[in-house]
Amino acid sequence: DRKPKYISVGVGCSKDLWDSKKNLPSKKHPLSKELIIKIEKTKTDAKRLLLKFEDEKLDFSSEEFTKKLKNQTKKTTVYQFLETVIAELLKADKVGNSNVYKSLRDVLLRFRNRKDFTFSELDGSFLRKFEQDLRERGLKEISMSVHFRTLRALYNRAVVEDYARKESNPFQEFKVSKFSMKTKKRAIKKDDIKRIALLSIEKGTRLYDAQNVFLYSYYCSGINISDMIELQWKDIINNEFMDYERNKTHQRQLVKLLPPAIEILAYYRKFSLGDFVFPFLDKTKHISAVQIKNRIKKINKQINEDLKIIAEMAAIDISLTTYVARHTFATVLKRSGVGTSKISELMGHGDEKTTQIYLDEFENEELYEATLNLL
What we know:
Blueprint: E1 18-19, E2 24-25, H1 32-55, H2 62-73, H3 78-91, H4 95-111, H5 124-136, H6 141-160, H7 190-198, H8 206-219, H9 225-229, E3 236-237, E4 241-245, E5 252-256, H10 259-271, H11 289-313, H12 322-335, H13 340-347, H14 352-371
Antiparallel strand pairs: 1-2, 3-4, 4-5
């Protein structure tokens, strides 16, 4: 707005040691050379930043220019920046995202033997060595993909905040897409579901809860375990519908309840003492987002351990988990002739591509069975 803007270089100077004609510290100043170098460097940085704005044809205010210039002089390490990002995510109650960055921090600390490093050291050679280290430690491709995508997101964020140089971005050459995102698909058949449902398990036990959780997920459009643990009675409408918000997408999901699901709800309604349908969360103990997230993680692990016992009891040769219920829901419908678009809507997916991830293995199996007709 045609007004001067003064930017401090962070050092003071008394009037008697200042040359007002040259607008620089006078020769009498004991640190005149050092101060002049600092002032000139700040001017050079300012001119460089101005050229960057003009080259990228960006509009900017004096406040924005000052902030960017100050950030250029600030230095931060990768670990320091990681801790800042983790803290910001936790403050915003984004516990899941913060855990992803914590996991990246842990593998980097192990890879670097806890030695810190700067973003300028994060180059192509660093990424290749990091990849080799993860492979030698036996990490799966999907886990490696998550770590490298998170590291790429961290670098891009550092660029925005002027802690890293866009033109030095190592991910322009190192392609994260090379890591396979395919997971081993696990689904059981409708007969297997019936065998699980017919198991005679003592009521009120951990095993009985695991059986009910698995079956409820299957009967209710493959509802995710975290959504199920946080499910409240207010989400059950007239004992006919389940209307809840998905943790992952924050979208409402409406599910018409099948008779077996209504029976499961009837059992828990008898003993319910609070707002939650299933007996895993306690509002007096699990208050913060972090406490709830940690509790869900613990319960999911516990249920998956119990499901392995249930698989043995039902003579099902698969590592049974809560994820299997969701995948089986999709696969059974596909085998029954239901279109992918309808399955996608029932599962609450944003697009059919996500649903296709659940169904790819099934379709490959179908194609193989079709070729058997040649024999």
